[in-house]
Aspartic peptidase DDI1-type domain-containing protein (Gossypium gossypioides), 84 residues
Amino acid sequence: MFVDINIAGQKWSALIDTRASDLFISEKAGKKFGLSIKKSNKKIKTINFEEAPTMGVVHNVELQIGEWKAKEDFEVETKVLSSI
């Protein structure tokens, strides 16, 4: 399901996965938002791909979905999100 969000002060449409354990953002989107990507040793495993390292993490990103607002951390992922 796609919903309108506000991330780092910019309005976008985002794919929402209500069963995901983490929040993800592509490297391209992270750079577009001007987010500071910090290296990470975390690995992820999805249903359709083998285990893969994330590129890094961005911390305390302002996120708003509807009336809900929070500062959240996003894993920066390149393999799955490269085409999104």
User: Anything to note?
Assistant: The chain has one domain: 2-77. The first helix runs from residue 27 to 32. Residues 2-77 form a domain with the Cathepsin D, subunit A; domain 1 fold (CATH 2.40.70.10). The chain has a mean pLDDT of 86.
